[in-house]
Amino acid sequence: MKSGKVQRGRGPWPLSNEALVVRQWLMTRIVGLELREQQSVIRLLLDEVSGVSRSERLLGNWMASESELERLALACDRLNQGEPLQYILGSAHFMGLDIGVNDSVLIPRPETEELVHRMLQRVPSSKSLPRKVLDIGTGSGVISLAWKSNRPLDTVHGLDISTEALKTARSNAERLGLVVHWHEKNIVSGETVADQVLNACDVILSNPPYIAESEKSEMNRQVTDWEPDTALFVPDHDPLIFYRCIIAGCESNGWLTSAGWLGFECHRDGVQEICELFDPDHWKSVEKEQDMQGNWRMIFAQRRALDSKS
């Protein structure tokens, strides 16, 4: 079930609105979490609802208003129904940016930060040669916005099939003051061969859907009940559909420039199979990399320069 069903928080209410009493009350309201996680969640909720930091609450003798208690109670109800904290807060952090999120977009993961960081390391910054960068399956816009934040001279495009996701991405860009060009497109529709948005990119990054439908029953319900299926799942009979489409577009349809870079986030069990999709006649290098947890998670490939086979 998606968010929006619960409209008001419910009692019992704290005995007073003093900060310590409110905190103890929250500990009784939030269930099913280990103590350390519970304390972290409570701190984030109090930061969001009070609008001030923990130290400011302590030094300023903060006391919760009735409306703040109502918001906290509602947040507890939503948490106890399994809704992710990021959706309740309406935001998540990604490479130093505060990204707005809701149930039309995936919650940003650390592995995606790693993808962007490692591509930035591979592609040198250049004031004299701004690049065209494309993020396929942009969702909330995290990859596009993080790249633009780090490389303000580059022209960045974010592409997604979801109208609602793109609304979220546009809102994030406007709030952060970052200029990104957003496009609603379905790259597997077969109608993008001559598309100018996809033409002659210097860098393409993508964290496409890659989880087979048959794996859904084994996943955490906090993911499957709340995050968008279209951003997560692919058909069992063709789990590499997006990777094949993007690689083919780069090799045959001019999506990637000579010596351009392509970076993928992948299912940890599918990296080698995706590597085998690359035609060595078109690519100078294809490298797979592990994430911080030791899982094979990323692929970085560079196209051969024109007239080069070496």
Short description:
The chain has about 300 residues and is an alpha/beta fold. It has helices spanning about 20-30, 35-50, 55-60, 65-80, 85-90, 110-120, 140-150, 165-175, 220-225, 240-250, 270-275, and strands at about 90-95, 95-100, 130-135, 155-160, 180-185, 200-205, 210, 235, 255-265, 285-290, 295-305.
As for the number of domains, it is: 2
**CATH-defined superfamily of the largest domain:** Vaccinia Virus protein VP39
Strands, total number: 11
Continuous helix count? 11
* Percent strand: 15-25%
Q: Which ranges are low-confidence, i.e. pLDDT below 50, for 5 or more consecutive residues? A: 1-6
Roughly what is the average pLDDT, rounded to an integer? 92
CATH topology of the largest domain: Rossmann fold
Distance between the termini: 53 Å
Radius of gyration in whole Å, from Cα?
22 Å
CATH uppermost class of the largest domain? Alpha Beta
Helix and strand pattern = HHHHHEEHEHEHEEEHEHEHEE
CATH architecture of the largest domain: 3-Layer(aba) Sandwich
Strand order of the largest sheet: 5-4-3-6-9-11-10
Identify the overall geometry.
Answer: elongated
Supply the helix-strand structural class: alpha/beta
Helix proportion: 25-40%
Describe this structure in words.
By secondary structure, this protein is an alpha/beta fold. It has 2 domains: 19-83; 103-303, 3-Layer(aba) Sandwich (Rossmann fold), CATH 3.40.50.150. Helix content is 35%, strand content 19%. It contains 11 helices and 11 strands. The protein has helices at 19-29, 35-50, 54-59, 66-80, 85-89, 110-122, 142-150, 163-176, 221-224, 241-252, 271-275, and strands at residues 91-94, 97-100, 132-136, 155-160, 181-184, 201-206, 211-212, 233-234, 256-265, 283-290, 296-303. The strands form 3 sheets. The protein has a 7-stranded mixed beta sheet with strand order 5-4-3-6-9-11-10, sandwiched between helices. A two-stranded antiparallel ribbon has the order 1-2. Strand 10 and strand 11 (296-303) form a beta hairpin. It is elongated, with a radius of gyration of 22 Å. The termini are far apart. 35% of the residues are buried. Residues 1-6 have low confidence and may be disordered.
